[in-house]
Amino acid sequence: MKKISLTNQLIYICILIIGIISIALGIILPKELLPIYEENIYNKLNGKAQVILIPFTLNDDFNKVKGLIDICDGIILPGGDDIYPLELEVAKYLYKLDKPLLGICLGMQTIGVAFNGKFGHLNTLEHKSKDKYVHSVDIYKDSLLYSIIGKKKIMVNSRHKDYVESTNLTVGAVCNDIIEEVEDKTKKCFIGVQWHPEDLEDENSEKLFNFFILFNSFKLHILGYIKNFKVGGQHVYS
Predict the structure, then answer these.
(1) Residue 48: what are its φ and ψ, rounded to 5°?
(2) Of residues 167, 164, 218, the one with CA closest to residue 194
(3) By Cβ atoms counted within 10 A, which residue in 37, 106, 131, 148 is the most buried?
């Protein structure tokens, strides 16, 4: 919480806290120490929220991370190499709480698998490339993703070797027969994308992260009010 003092007035500003779930060796908060894919997420959120890393090890159970998750306003499941049981529990817990969740690449696969999903291995390298844009994604017009981005087709990057074959969640976008996005429109923000929007400096990625941040939380209502609060004709916070 940030505190600003103006003459005899004290204004408390609520800051959003976003947690990144990661298998790691301790809490790594300084940007310089973050793995590259997590550093890029940090950069996307910098200035919009306080970012904390929520680390876990293979031997940790859900209660080890629950306390940190509970203080966060939203959670990001980033890319990685393997799906861990703890991450599946996190996805189900956030779904039950209706706490905003954004899954990226493996994070999307984790969300899909958590809800009766089937996990498969790609037999092609067409979805694994270092190029900035690799393939197009077709977005269903009745999806949450379409309401966020406002386009039926976008270009994305792609760096995955596995995919979600099926899931009980709603599929909002595909590339041919490959699921590229999963969601639940009955939740505030429960969405996962197969690509890496944190690595793309484009309008589509900006809209996705902005939606994740601006989910009409109580804190943002307070922040919006304070941004418009004036003392002596001057804004006190911007």
Answers:
(1) -105, -20
(2) 164
(3) 106
Residue 186's nearest CA partner among 168, 203, 173, 174 is 168
Give the C-alpha separation, 230 to 220, whole Å. Answer: 18
Q: How far apart are CA 5 and CA 131, in angstroms?
A: 49
- Tokens, residue 149: 């981005």
pTM of the full predicted structure? 0.81
Instruction: Determine the distance from the C-alpha atom of residue 203 to the mean position of all C-alpha atoms in its chain, rounded to a whole number.
Output: 16
Residue 215 banded pLDDT, cuts 50, 70, 90: low
Alpha-carbon span 142 to 202, nearest angstrom: 23
d(CA 209, CA 26): 26
Q: Are 84 and 26 spatial neighbours (Cβ–Cβ below 8 Å)?
A: no
SS3 state at 161:
coil
- Specify whether the CB–CB gap between 91 and 191 falls below 8 A: no
